[in-house]
Amino acid sequence: MIAVPLFSIPPIISLLPLRTMDKLSSIAKFKASCPFLGRTKTSTLRTLCTSTSPRYPSLSRLTEKATECPVMGPALQLRSGQMAAGYASLAGTAEFNKIPEHKGVLASPSAASAEKCPHASKALAAARMAEDLANLKNEKSAKAASAPSTSKAPATAAGCPFHAATAKETKRKSTPGGFDYEQFYTTELEKKHQDASYRYFNNINRMANKFPIAHTGNVKDEVEVWCANDYLGMGNNPIVLETMQYVGLARASMLFFTHAIGRSRTLNTYGHGAGGTRNIAGNTGMHLALEEELAQLHRKDAALVFSSCYVANDATLTTLGSKLPGCVYFSDTMNHASMIQGMRHSGAKRVIFKHNDLQDLEAKLAQYPKETPKIICFESVYSMCGSIGPIAEICDLAEQYGALTFLDEVHAVGLYGPHGAGVAEHLDYELQKRAGQSPEPIKGSVMDRIDIITGTLGKAYGAVGGYIAGSMDFVDTIRSYAAGFIFTTSLPPINMAGARASISYQRLFNGDRQLKQLNVRDLKGRFEALDIPVVPGPSHIVPVLVGDAALARLASDTLLAKHNVYVQAINYPTVARGEERLRFTVTPGHNMEQIARLAQAVDQTFTELGMKRTSEWRAEGGRASVGMPDAQPVEPIWTDEQLGLLDGTAPRTLKAGQERVVDARAVRITREKFNNLLGPGEEGVDMDVGVAQVVEAVAPGLTLPTPPLEASIPTAVSA
Ligand SMILES: Cc1ncc(COP(=O)(O)O)c(C=O)c1O
């Protein structure tokens, strides 16, 4: 069993009376053993040492922080009682003793308490050490501390105390004279720790019946999710769930019991896996129908589904760049890794232009003969800063210089345009709205001018998968040549059905999109009023600048530990160093009270951790578009008119306890689309029914393949 070094740290309390420099050098000794100290920059530690806690003015912020530690907290409590003239002179014992109680720190240190440490628990998760800790918990004894681990070998990394502790015991011996593979991994991981780009994954389990709540590794520990890319909450939309699995979702009456059982939907009909590649047994009606739905959504000839949009981008760009003779790619500097990989894999020349900079793009296009095949690759919504690409203007340049346009609408599909086809659709909002569900292209519209659109099924549509859409022969070429499409098992029919139901529903109902944008406006407004540094942008992304990797992680940990708010820190390489941030996503399923509480929690965290606000960034000349001296106000792309704010048709925001609205017409039409494959849907149903009631009504004694939803489904309304 592995000894967890965290428990051997002498209390920081003993260092507190020393001068700051002495304190820091003493604390630095424990960087290797304490996950918090190990990951926090010296400059941040210095700030924490020298500033007083706003809540407990007689303590430094570092001491207050230490009380949250399951090891330090109880030790501090004990020592504060013992040290009448030492520590107690710095902090009134009574005030100090309140802190652990207030923060729920355990009375005595134990192995179990390590799980309460936000720093340790994340390192544990990343290092696959949870299993070892569980063993530690069960076999807490001297014997356990010296016995070898029986669990599977964890990854090793010298920069992580848990990796380091286990590395010696679990390393596979290298063949004498042979390459030391384990050392190689250790060194590579150490680099990640050194440059603060090592990733810690939180265990977050979003619950279908409690949106936007998730539980952590402990099922009883519930948190609010504020960073998921399930932008519209479609991952638990009732028509999606019904299409995938449920039988007669809306039937509340026993009258329909037998009838409903006979009409089981996709899972019951087609089972789980697709059974093969698209070429061999894995080309199902659900795949074909989804591709038809996608082609119609974008008013293109054809679409093709891939296992993800990462794969779609990579496979498509690899194929085009290697097939088109002398092809040159023009790539926005902020393009997603999937596009960059595809361009690289193709071996074609890649010219990078400055983010959204048309002059730079034109200057670079002009350097190549018109007859040279060129592809301009860009995104509509850039997901980490929330900026939007100048799509129409790039189409102008593409026409002028004979280039194809490749537009990644991953963070826009479902969310923009009257039917959710993305920003290209949004730019001709009224025209596209009037065209309704017609699959015909609208000549001259921005969406029509884009040659290749790629999108994901995994974000606003709440499913999994990615796709391309474009001309018939383009799609057929990729289908015929792209290895990433051909040589892989196709996605399960159930996922294809769920994705199609989601797209169809969102094509028919604008309310979720509008409500999302209203909530985004509300959150941005609250943050701005509190001087929280929101990176300005016209889209739904709410990035909040932190500007330091360790501080961003600390802010994320603090929000989770103290406020039950889960927002992931975004650090290098996803964003540039010095531009680290928290990236909030708010959905139509978040209610007003939750949004208000979030703003307060973030405000409090900024104060507690001494994080810079907009005014402070401004005083320093600005960073990452925050507090820039020459900044112009940024207008949201969804206008007041499009949100229904001018004619009173805007959807109502949710109050605590209110259920999300589900559109009955969109449900009915979507359900009918599956009739040819799944049998007739439930006509004329009353959607104002809870899933729990339905399940009870249709299936007393019947074991459904997965547990039924317990909470009521949202109220249905007509569009
Ligand atoms: C801009 C962009 N394109 C493509 C992808 C890949 O999409 P998927 O998650 O479907 O693989 C992402 C994923 O986050 C993305 O942000």
Automatic annotation (TrEMBL):
Residues 225-602 form the Aminotransferase class I/classII large domain. One of its GO terms (cellular component) is mitochondrion. Keywords: Acyltransferase, Heme biosynthesis, Pyridoxal phosphate, Transferase. Its cofactor is pyridoxal 5'-phosphate. GO terms for molecular function: 5-aminolevulinate synthase activity; pyridoxal phosphate binding. Pathway: Porphyrin-containing compound metabolism; protoporphyrin-IX biosynthesis; 5-aminolevulinate from glycine: step 1/1. GO terms for biological process: protoporphyrinogen IX biosynthetic process. Belongs to the class-II pyridoxal-phosphate-dependent aminotransferase family. This is 5-aminolevulinate synthase, mitochondrial. It comes from Grifola frondosa (Maitake). The lineage of its organism: Eukaryota, Fungi, Dikarya, Basidiomycota, Agaricomycotina.
